[in-house]
Amino acid sequence: MSAGILGVQDWEWLLIAGIVLMLITIDIVGHVRSPHEPTLKEAATWTAFYVTLACSFGLYMYLVHGVDPSGEYFAGYITEYSLSIDNLFVFIIIIGSFKIPRKYQQKVLLYGIIIALVLRLIFIIVGAAIIERFVGIFFIFGLFLLYTAVQQLVPEGEDEEYKPNALVVFAQKHLRFKDTFETDKLLVKVEGKRAITPLFLCVAAIGSVDLMFALDSIPAVFGLTKEPFIVFSANAFALLGLRQLYFLIDGLMERLVFLHYGLAAILGFIAFKLILHAFHGYNLLKFIPEPSTAVSLGFIVVTVIITVLASVIASRGKKN
Predict the structure, then answer these.
(1) Alpha carbon distance 158, 89 (integer Å)
(2) What is the DSSP letter of 292?
(3) Whole-number Å distance between alpha carbons of 221 and 227
(4) Interatomic CA distance for residues 199 and 179, integer angstroms
């Protein structure tokens, strides 16, 4: 888990940046410019495309950088993708609370994803700089993930209504607001003056909520690799496919009844790795080996498979 072991070249950062910008451009031009509700076939096709692209990048990591870096990437991608699916529950509640028409939801999600990518890139840069100078940060990351894992096991209350955070409340109180959906614009003119729309508030809500999600996901992936290039790549490919995944599994979310337990196990495992790595940094507990990349990837994959299969079986049992 030493920093900078890949020797990633500048052109590789430019490559991933180019891929991200290209995909965002395709989404803006091909999907968002003409508001529409994606069909199940469209959502499934594009979800398969994004997953295939993410796996292709993992193959690139294997061919160019070797087995362990590709394993770290896949472990990070699967972890981030699993966390993103869990986050979709919150996005559904937020979008529903603002009563966003179905045909405009793609735009809200896309802009929210763009905000998330920028915020997570900042988190990754800051996190990598801290890690290089202070190994004790792994204690903080590990304990925070352990707390998050425990929170996943706490039963949710019946009240799933979205409560606006401080940013949204401030915008509602201090900015000119027009509560209509005449267009898919974030800003409109009211009596010659700019006013925000419900879409603007919804994007702000999703963006600010994702800031909290980043506090979970970034330490989680740093627990699997200390290479910023891998951390950002895993986050980028997981987030870019999130918009189409939203429309694909919107009606199936309630069937993933054991998702929280799977996430708790994954986050708990990574928390153990982080804390153990921190102890090793101070020459303590050296007799306990850190789980290898293969062990980490295997644990995450098996946990996800068990979680999904158990959820499917339990959902069928309820129907019967």
Answers:
(1) 14
(2) P
(3) 10
(4) 9
